[in-house]
Sequence to fold (491 residues):
Amino acid sequence: MNDRMFASLNNRITSVAKASEVISDGMTVAMSGYAMAGFPKAIPEQLVRRKNKGLKLKINLITGANVPWLDELLAPSEIIARRVPMCASKALSSQVNSGSVRYVEQQMCKMPRLLRSRSFGKIDVLVVEALAVTEEGLVPTTSVGLTHFLMDQANEIIIEVNSAQPDILIGMHDVYIQRPAPDTEPIPLTSCTDRIGSAFIPFDMSKIKYIVETDTPENIEEPTTFTPESRKIAENLFNFLRIEFQTSSGGKIPPVQLGFGTIANAIAEMFQSSEFRDLQFHCGGVSDKVLELLLSGKACGISTSGISMNENMGKMLEQIPDVHKKLVLRNGDIINNSEIIGRLGVLALNTGIEIDIYGNVNSSHIGGTRVVYGIGGGANFAQNAGLSVVVIPSMSKGGAISNIVPMVSHQDICEHDIDLVITENGYADLRGLDELERAEAIIVNCAAEDYKQQLYDYFSASKKLGGHHPQHPSMAFAWYSRLKETGTMHE
Fold:
């Protein structure tokens, strides 16, 4: 471990138990982590042990983005009183929906400004996982996230130096810190593999309260399977991509934003066997399936803020030739920066809970009220992408719910930011269409057969009320009332 810290810091090393005692009831605590990667492990587990022994302990928790492991660990012990900026576990979302936890949902692109302005209050303690601490600064592990902002704002810092994180990560980070407005300058990044920053995070080392040594693998196992429905959605996406890019660009497509889950896995696997080449990815997090594209040579560059590390991912990193030239771990404010998304012309692939007949997307709240996750970076990618796509099944709950509805119950992504809608039934290219044409295209090409007539009936009734964007609110929300009363949206 000594080779991962310079000698003058040895007097800050202590036990996990002692370090955790810095955190007390009512504090605002920040933790590193981004896109399921790079989060501290020992201190959070010790907080649970302390709480389970009867200690009064509730904290306001801030992270750079979604960190499911932390939420799943801390929520059952009711340690979290307030959460920023995403909610990433069923236990925590249940507490949020019951009102026992305050949840401040934020877009990723707004977090740097809000942290700098201390909109969430002062940060008493930051707990950050590190690969090493050098005289130059902190070397992160599997994510950079917004750690540099959290370090700037924290009064005190606890560092977990995790020897289980592989050495190959050293040199993979590219930390570029912008000056705050109005002194912000253009970001000199024109390709996914550009390196414009440093391999460490500079910070005020006088803030270090304690350093703890850990040896805990991250071991995030993501499902690698996908459903026939997801496969069909991926096929429809590729049918469109062949028309859009095969002739005009010779098989090359813009950098891709791709998330996690069954649809994302199906898309990544289809890229593997497709005719598309020299793939690049610019996204918040990277799964096994995307890294496999780099290993096979199908992809030539990945720009991301987090790697969901597990044993398989570690082996792949070791096998990829010149991996440090092809895989760049960036800070989240660069990944989610509108300037970069627009300049790269990103192909943004988002999903959601539901989408309405005009293209508005609800990606976070069931029935408009019950949060299940958080908006994250989806809306910002959709707004600034070269091509903004929503991939979503047309139905859920065995057909009891239509995921294409008359009017979304909660809006996260605006219809004006959606170019293409894809379900297992087909795709609707919405570019250049007016409101009525958009609705017609989505119903005809994307809706489930079981719900097409209902959607047509709604569309016809709403048009009779007139207007540029016809809506019939009472009729639209009758779909949700019917679901609540009868268990299905079917009439």
Q: What stands out?
A: The chain is about 35% helix and 20% strand. The chain has a mean pLDDT of 93. The CA atoms of residues 187 and 272 lie 31 Å apart. The two ends are 65 Å apart (CA to CA).
